[in-house]
Amino acid sequence: MSAEFRELLKKVGSGAHTHKNLTREEAHQAATMMLTGEATPAQIGAFLIAHRIKRPTGIELAGMLDAYSDLGAKLNTIPHISYPLTILGIPYDGRSRTAPISPITALILACHNIPVLMHGGKTMPTKYGLPLIEIWQNLGVNLTQLSIEKAQNLLEETNFSFLYLPEHFPLANKLVQYREEIGKRPPLATLELIWQPYTGNSHLIAGFVHPPTEKMIREALKIRGIEQFTLIKGLEGSPDLKLGQTTIICVNNTQREEGYEYLKIHPEEFNLSREDVDLKDYESYYQEVNKLLQGQQSILSDSVILNGGFYLWRCGFSSSLKDGIDTVINLLDTDKLFTKLEEIKAVLNS
């Protein structure tokens, strides 16, 4: 047992009226002790559930992110790039109700020389949804055996890469079992959304469900000096924009005193469908993805157009959302997405 960790646990777990928030340094210490196993399993489980009940602060998230930055793998700055690297923070426990769009979004950005980094793990509690790694595997891209050197090379050669938690951050992967055992997503699930495993200039994209989470993330990013971000109230807490309703988005804006502003994206303004695509079964989803890659019409097309157009605009390629959407409409009539996918496969297999 760690007596030092016990004192941190007592602060967050003392009850509704007597608990205390951790300082940034204490949160850094707590996360480090959990990641390295200095805290015992009983202490880790108790901390995660107590922290969830208390709710983390932005300061605590910043400190825990410090530990992730210290101990996790990271890719190095890419030389001679025109745009900041886009980090797509996707919930690690996957999608269970709606069709994921972000892998196609990543290909769209990579086609336009905007580097993209994704990260995630295996099928994970508590949602047990479809994880990114399985989508890429179904597309013929096996990212589970990448060394960190190969991940770096893939990014530099194709403008796309992926960090796989079991391979690149095994210390964090060991904490996954606690989600199963406590039956709840701990605050680490929010931490994963805003992990930035890259040393260079980056643009953080993260999804959220509840407004308090968005505020907490903003506070953590401000404390850590992260100035470029896009936070999306997207499908199932992902950064995928919605067709079925207006999507609320928080973006950095240094011209405003508070440092951010809100956008509202209305799909009907662009004559797009107003229905999000259900994830009825994986096989049907993969068939629709492959239609897109072959330049065919798909039930995913409108969602891909909205998301791809928004991200091309937000990442600086397109001058407006309308211009971004038109660019994606034209792109889907070509084989460029398929060509980019084949390029990724070729570099992986070289």
From TrEMBL:
GO terms for molecular function: glycosyltransferase activity. Residues 6-69 form the Glycosyl transferase family 3 N-terminal domain. Keywords: Amino-acid biosynthesis, Aromatic amino acid biosynthesis, Glycosyltransferase, Transferase. The keyword Amino-acid biosynthesis applies. Residues 97-334 form the Glycosyl transferase family domain. It holds the Pfam family Glycos_trans_3N. InterPro entries: Anthranilate_Pribosyl_Tfrase, Glycosyl_Trfase_fam3, Glycosyl_Trfase_fam3_N_dom, Glycosyl_Trfase_fam3_N_dom_sf, Nuc_phospho_transferase. It comes from the Bacteria. PANTHER family: ANTHRANILATE PHOSPHORIBOSYLTRANSFERASE, SLL1634 PROTEIN. This is Anthranilate phosphoribosyltransferase family protein. It comes from Cyanobacterium stanieri LEGE 03274.
